[in-house]
Amino acid sequence: MPGQQFQLTQFSAARERIGSAVLRTPMVPSPSLSERTGVPVFLKMEHHQTTGSFKLRGATNALLQLDEDTRRRGVVCVSTGNHGRALAFASKRLGVDCTICMSKLVPQNKVEAIRELGAQIVITGASQDEAQLEADRLVAENGLTLVPPFDHHDVICGQGTLGLEIMEDVPDAHTILVPLSGGGLIAGVAAAAKETNPAVKIIGLSMERGAAMAASLKAGRPVQVTEEPSLADSLGGGIGLQNQYTFQIARDLVDQVILLPETEIAEGIRHAYWQERQVIEGGAAVGIAALLNGDLKPEGPVVMLLSGCNIDMSLHHRIIGGENVDLAEETKG
Ligand SMILES: *Cc1c(COP(=O)(O)O)cnc(C)c1O
């Protein structure tokens, strides 16, 4: 079982290693969601993590495991989202050169945001795949080390530190709700939490539009899906046809996967804002959405992992104002 490659001692070691570089985010009760569901609901406020998402945990853990020589040559990734931000931030802190490859399609404001974090930027190609080819070239020819966003042992161990914190703060947790894309987050959290209490239920949440892990679990092997614009943009992208870790761990340790339509993700963002006074991105709103729409009928204490806050604030403004935003319509042009 691949989960066995991830033992409690490894998560504890990761926690020790990254402890001074990441926040131990708060766990707070949600009276409104507890009232609605009839069971205690707690929010793990990981959207307050430095860089605005949990990705800092995995990126920091991966960087700290590299030896001196490897660090001196620098690291590379292709993400322009939360992983890119996290890797750029962690690299700067540790004095490691970080290169982020991105396609010509990436909007200027995203390019600038990553540049401000101190990363070197290589703009190349017309797609994410072409940017990946450039990253592969930098690895092969210049000796850089690729730090991928999810399918990597040390990244998974870093994200799994969240599982330890959750089980410490809510030892009687019955169900943990985890946003799901490539599966690094859910693999780490599920392995760490189930080794602490094998009875705890792990539920993955994705958007209906282009949920690669859900489609792969259904097919019994990693498959590709068509990417579509979604409010949960940080949950987009594939799981990799050569997936090494996250597919098998998700298959073995995730109890259920729920897919949410765009209107309900928007409802989750609204609820977080008006009832909980929290700004969260679409990818973090899927758990709230599943509780609100009644897809999920929890039986005991629920922990909801709020994974990130990096949403375009003018988009957020429109959503909380009640506008019915459909990004697929808007990008048709
Ligand atoms: C990356 C990300 C996820 C999904 O994590 P995976 O490890 O890819 O499953 C969820 N929420 C936010 C905010 C993210 O940035």
TrEMBL record:
InterPro entries: Ectoine_EutB, Ser/Thr_Dehydratase, Ser/Thr_deHydtase_PyrdxlP-BS, TrpB-like_PALP, TrpB-like_PALP_sf
Name under which the protein is recorded: Threonine dehydratase
Higher taxonomy: Bacteria, Pseudomonadati, Pseudomonadota, Alphaproteobacteria, Hyphomicrobiales
Superkingdom classification of source: Bacteria
Tryptophan synthase beta chain-like PALP domain ranges (all copies): 21-308
Record keywords: Lyase, Pyridoxal phosphate
Cofactor: pyridoxal 5'-phosphate
Entry-linked NCBIfam families: ectoine_eutB, PRK07476.1
Keyword Lyase: yes
